[in-house]
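Following up on my earlier message about LLP. Here are the inputs again, as you asked, copied directly from the submission form:
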Amino acid sequence: MHHFNYREGVLHCEDVPLREIALEVGTPCYVYSYSTLIRHFRVMDEAFSAIPHLVCFAVKANSNIAVLKALAKEGSGMDVVSGGELFRALRAGVDPERIVFAGVGKTAQEMEYALRVGILMFNVESDQELETLEEVACRLKIKAPVALRVNPDVDPKTHPYISTGLKKSKFGIAIEEIVEEYETAARLPCIQVRGVHCHIGSQITQVAPFVEALGKVLGLVDRLRGLGLDISYVDMGGGLGIQYKDESPPPPAELASAIRPLLEGRGLTLILEPGRVIAGNAGILLTKVLYLKKGRVKRFVVVDAAMNDLARPSLYGAYHAILPVEERAAGAMVADVVGPICESGDFLAQDRELPELKQGDLLAVMSAGAYGFTMSSNYNSRPRVAEVLVSGDRFWVVRERERYEDLVRGERIPRFLLSEQSS
Ligand code: LLP
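Thanks, got it. Here's what our run produced:
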């Protein structure tokens, strides 16, 4: 469910015609629907209302501080994976006690930052990371709250780049070895064991892998409690998929009814780290047709957005629906939708059925609210695009389009290059 619909033949975000945004803000730009974001958060939150839980939005999916603020006002916590994401979450006013910190490569500096602000817990991914955290925490005379991330060896049946819970993956600690690691953690004076963390992958479209992983996690919780460890949180990560094309992922309520019975009466608080399911269909990338080009064997629609703005098609071969802002039936032509970047991999769609298009037409690249702007770059020295938030019949630029000056910010020409002589 989202709030991007045609009204009288014109695609709107909530009550705002997208062409109005294109006129005022220019293209390309990301457009987010506030009502959709909030609705998705509430659906997730309410699905689990019968058990103690905390929804921590995965900041990596969409880290704009207006988006984070909107979710924080609904009571969302945040899942962060870097000092930068922690900074954003705090800037958006998120209570540090609702923040969890994951990732295989946290630096001592990032640990110190998170310890000083008092986050809910670190999701620790290796023995060396645990040692470093212990050192940093002891130095600060703080007890670091932790969960260890277990790699349960469960196949989430998704794209290999976004599967994280298999034996061969860099994430987490193998389930066979983790009890020992917990025993070590429990002996460390500046570590406070709080929970178990697990995240098996992203864009998962079935309930079964979650149930399988939770089963293994709960088995682990029982063993750890048997050893006298105080486990009060189970963090199941994110991963619930969305519809990009014809997938039919389970709605949050279905996931909740499958896993709730396993958790009831266990004295555990469930943490969830959804990213895509909250932000994915709450945003689009608005772009304009620059040129129509006929190759020898293919037609191309050259648009002003490129792989640096939305990397998912090039990186994962991901499908994003592309709709004309002025409604027209698809099928008039088959073409690749490509950007201006100097790479053959720069496409937003390949062999796509599209309506007949002309120069200047506006297109909406759908389902781009998660892992869209956050994965964008300045490749080919393209300024990063503006982000716009819509609520009802109003909209706000929540991130300005970068200017050329932003591209060289922080760069310097060393003195020797400025001297007249070239030697
Ligand atoms: N928690 C952890 C520890 C994660 O690693 C991730 C995503 C999430 C939560 C949120 O997962 P979600 O609910 O969004 O599936 N760039 C890729 C997705 C990478 C996901 C990485 N981790 C894409 O565009 O498909």
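One observation from looking it over: The CA atoms of residues 206 and 249 lie 6 Å apart. Hope that helps, and feel free to reply on this thread.
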